[in-house]
Amino acid sequence: MAMKKTFVLVVLFILPLVAYIFFASGVNNFGKLPTLTGNVDDVSTLDASVTLNDKITILGFLGRNAALKKGNAFNLNQKIYKRFYEFKDFQIVMVMPIGTDSVVQEIKNELNNLTDASNWKFIYAEDKDILNFYNSLETDVPLEGDMGTPYVFIIDKDKNLRGRKEDEDEGTKYGFNTSSVAELNNKMEDDVKIILAEYRLALKKNNAKRSD
To answer: What does the pLDDT look like over 197-209, one tens digit per residue?
Structure first.
C-alpha cells in the first residue's frame, strides 16, 4: 500500500515538476530564432506604403504565374496567417511583378472569404528591382524566372532574416516551402511562435523596468 501511495505521489507531483523544468530550460536554450541575414533591404524601396521596419513579416514572391501558386497562398493563409494575424505588427508581404494585378485581386477576394486578410500586403515592382531586393536576403533558395518561389521567409522587426542553423533536414534553413502543408505545420508554425514569444518577452522586460 505504501509503495502504491508513493507511486501515485510521483505521478501527480514529481513528474509534472520534471516536465516543467525540462520545457522551461528548452525555452531558455531555444528561445531565439537565429539571424541568418542581417539588415535586408526594405520593401519600402519598392512601395513606400509598406515597410518591414517594426513588423514581424512573412515575406513571399508568388511570381508572374501567381495563378498557379494560389494553393501556396491558401496553404500559408490557413496554416500560418489565421493562427497569428491578430498579433500586433504581424503581416504577410508578397512582392509581385508588375502586371499581376488581376490575379492578385482574385487571390485577395478568395482570402477575404476565408478570413480577415487585411494584413496581407501585395506590392508591385519591375523584375530587375524584385531581383535586387531578393538578392539582399542572401539565401540559398533561387528565385525562379517568373520572379516567384514557393518559399517564404521570416523577417523580424529589425529587418533581419530569421531561420534555422541546424535544421534536421536542411542544415541551414532560410525559408519555408508553402507547397508543403507538413513543413508549414511542423516547422514554420513553431518558428513563428518562437519569434513572437521573443518579442513578447522583451516587451514584458521593458514594461517591468519602467514600473520599477
So the answer is: 998 886 666 665 5
Q: Which residue has the cell 480577415?
A: 116
Residue 123 pairs in a beta bridge with 95
The structural architecture, per CATH, of the domain 36-211 is 3-Layer(aba) Sandwich (3.40)
For residues 190 and 172, give the distance between their C-alpha atoms in angstroms, rounded to a whole number: 16
SS3 state of residue 201: helix
User: Rounded to 5 degrees, what angle do the CA atoms 196, 200, 203 make?
Assistant: 140
Number of Cβ within 10 Å of residue 103's Cβ equals 18
Q: Is 150 left (phi over 0), alpha (psi -120 to 50) or beta?
A: alpha
For the entire predicted model, the pTM comes to: 0.83
* C-beta of residue 43 within 8 angstroms of C-beta of residue 58: no
Cα torsion 89, 94, 99, 100 to 10°: value is -110
